[in-house]
Amino acid sequence: MHLNTVEEFLDHFINRKVRYDVLYLNDKELYKELYKVAEENSDKPEYQTLLGYLHKYGEAYGKNLELAYKAFKKAAEARDSYAMYELGLMYDRGDYVKEDINEAVKWYTLACDKDNPAAYCNLGCLYEKGKGVAQDDMKAFEHFEKAAGLGNVTALGNVALYYRLGRGVERDYNKSFELFKVAAEQNDKFSINQLGFMYENGYGTTKDLEKAFECYLLSAKKGYARAMNNVGYFYERGMGVEKDLVKALEWYEKAANAGDSFAMRNVGIFYRDALGVSKDLNKALYWFTKASEAGNTRAMVHIGNMYEKGEGVVQDYEKSFYWYEKAASLGNEIGINNIGVLYEKGLGVEKDLDKAITCYKKAAEYNCGIALSNLGLCYQYGRGVIQSKTVALMYFKKAIENGYEKAKEHYNNLNK
């Protein structure tokens, strides 16, 4: 939206017809005129809020969060809901002020009392995470639904997601699909990406990989990092589009540079396995490390694998154990299983079959195929447990049911 005159801008802003992001101003003359009008009317809360926005988002003269905070605080105390929301946001993110989630909740709640849609959405996010309030999916859903009803498209996408997941509300793929469509039509890049996921899996609609790819590509072109990763995945697998590893890597790298940890891991895999690019274990380790720093537990396991096998690094079982344990502490079942392998073999740690069995059983609770197979082998050969062909076959069968193909060989050899 282009608002070229002070009159146009004030009409849209004061009457709350547009989102505040139109205030990312580069026009110095317009900025100066708006600032002058805002100061002249600074006794009115909505103009104080405008001053706050100009200081926070205006690019023309540089941002000043201190002045933004002071303006928002004054307007918020005069009960302007947009200022209350912005004040809550600053406490939520620790912008200028020290992060204080209780203050954030307070100001979001006050803004909600005046039906501020963005405040409802952000408070819903806090209920979702259990941050500053007790975790409550139903309350999160209620807040998202209220915000969506007030026209917040981000919240509408969240409502659709909750219907898909059955989180805080009964699962309903049809309703989820329809709501994602509505939000996508409003150019919400998150919802466009999610619409692709619905087409990919046939949730609430007929499965259509070509439409899924179209959605992912549209969302990616709008700058959504996870969609960029999804485009890369479709090119890698030849899903809905002709297989092209070079294009897959290009999209993975775009997503990785945009901060997507899944894509960082995928770039690492491409360099490790020479997919569409020359093998480069240094680059693989770099991207696995970046992904790990962003919290990707699978990447942590990959680093552990590299140290265990001595691929691109000096073989170091202790470092391997460190990375597996790091992944395991965050709930990664492969990391848990791999710790068990190191305990079983005495690599980097003292050999301990009891601990190995404990790890395998813990990973098996996540239906981890390789862990189930490892338990089968332990029962087949009596390693750390009483030997039992029946129990071994049971675990091999469960491993096969969970997609671990190698367990078929173990099962067939034992069941001759």
Number of strands: 0
User: How much of the sequence is in beta strands?
Assistant: under 5%
Helix content: 55-70%
Total number of helical segments? 23
Radius of gyration: 27 Å
**N-to-C CA distance:** 72 Å
Mean pLDDT: 93
Q: Structural class, please?
A: mainly alpha
Catalogue the unreliable spans. Answer: 17-22
Main sheet summary: none
The gross shape turns out to be: elongated
Sketch the topology as an H/E string, one letter per element: HHHHHHHHHHHHHHHHHHHHHHH
Draw up the topology in text.
Layout (H helix, E strand, L loop, with lengths): L5 H9 L13 H13 L4 H13 L7 H13 L3 H13 L7 H12 L4 H13 L7 H13 L3 H13 L7 H13 L3 H13 L7 H13 L3 H13 L7 H13 L3 H13 L7 H13 L3 H13 L7 H13 L3 H13 L7 H12 L4 H13 L7 H13 L4 H9 L2
Helix pairs in contact: 2-3, 3-4, 4-5, 5-6, 6-7, 7-8, 8-9, 9-10, 10-11, 11-12, 12-13, 13-14, 14-15, 15-16, 16-17, 17-18, 18-19, 19-20, 20-21, 21-22, 21-23, 22-23
